[in-house]
Write a structure and sequence with these properties.
The strands form two sheets. A six-stranded parallel beta sheet has the order 1-8-5-4-2-3, with helices on both faces. The protein has a two-stranded antiparallel ribbon with strand order 6-7. The radius of gyration is 19 Å and the shape is globular. Strand 4, helix 4 and strand 5 form a beta-alpha-beta unit. Helix 3 crosses helix 4 and helix 5 packs antiparallel against helix 6. Helices cover about 50% and strands about 10% of the residues. By secondary structure, it is an alpha/beta fold. It has 14 helices and eight strands.
Amino acid sequence: MKPFVNFIPTKLYFGAGQLGMLGTIPLPGKKALIVITSGKSMRSSGTLDRVEKLLAHNNVGCAVYDKVQANPTREQVMEGAAFARREECDFVLGLGGGSPIDASKAIAVMAANPGDYWNYVSGGTGRAQPIPNPPLPIVAVTTTAGTGTEADPWTVVTNGNEKIGFGCEATFPKIAIVDPELMLTVPPQLTAFQGFDAFFHAAECYLANCATPVSELYSLKSIELICKSLPTAVRDGENLAARTDVALANTLSGMAESTSCCTSEHSLAHAIGGFHPNVPHGAALIMISKAWFKFYALRAPKQFAALAKAAGQSDFLGALDKLQRDCGVDRLKMSDYGIGREELPAINENAWETMGGLFDLDRIKMNKAESLAILEESYR
C-alpha cells in the first residue's frame, strides 16, 4: 500500500434539523457575508430569513450578496469580494447549492487578497500566483445534494468560456451544515442532475490514479446510497429518508474529492459548460457519461467490478443506464441545449487547455483524439 494523506478539516453537522445549530455553535466571525443566488428560492422558502434570525440569535450580524448565477463568474466573485470589504464582513456563509457555496469560497479568497481572482487560478489564462493572505473563513449551508462542495476545498468559476476549478487548504469550509429538510422542495429534474453530479464525483474519484484506501470507502458508499435512493428522491421529493441518503452520498462524494480527485470526465463537462452556460453541470456529465465510462470499463475491469458491486449490479455500465432511466434523464441531447456537432473539437481543446490536469489523474490515460471520440459518440 502506498503512503497517503487524509485531511478534511471541516466540522460537519449532518441530519434533519441541523440548520438550527447555526444559532448556537461558535462561528468564525462576528459578521457574515451571506452568499446566495440571484433566484428567489432562498427568500420565498423562508430559508434566508431563518438563517438571518439564527445568526442574530448567535449575536452575529450579516449582509447578503444575492447576484450569483448558476455558473458563478469571475465578475461576480470580484463584486462579492468588494461588497464584503465594504460591509466589513469577517467570514463568508455560502447558502444554497454548489453555485453560491463555490462562489463563497472564491469571494473569501478575494475579500482578503489584492488583484484579480484569475491571478490565482491555474489553467487556461489563469496566472497561478500564490495567494498572499489567508482567505476569510467559510461556512457552508447546503440546500441541495450535488457537488459535495461543503466537504471539499474546490470552487468552480467561469471566466469567458473558461470554467476552471480552484482550491487550497484554506478554502475548506470551517463549518458545514447539511440538513436534508432543506432539500425537500428541490424539483425532480434538478434533484436528478445534482444526484448524478455526486455520483460521478464518487466514481471518478474511485478511478483516479491518486485514490487512497480512505477515498475509495467514501466513493463506494456514496455510489451505494445514490443507486439506492436517488430514484425515490426524484419521484417523491418529500421522502425524507431518501433525501437523507442522497445528502449523505453527496457529502461523502465531497470527502472523496478532498482525498482523491475528479478526472477527465469533469474536464469535458466543464468545457461544455464554458461554451454553453445554460447547460446544467449534471446534465453535461450525464450526456457524456456512457461513452466516457465505456472507454474506462474495457481497460479497468477490476475497478469496474467494485463499482458495479457498490451500485448493486453485476455490470456498472448497466447500472449507470438503469439509474439514468429510473431518474428520467436517459434521453438528454446536446442539441437540445444548442450545442452544435461542429463545436465539439473546440470544446475538446478547451477541456485540455483549461483543466488538462485532470487528464493526468486518469488511471487509464486518454489522448485528445480519444476524448474527442467520447464527445462525438455522446452527441445527439
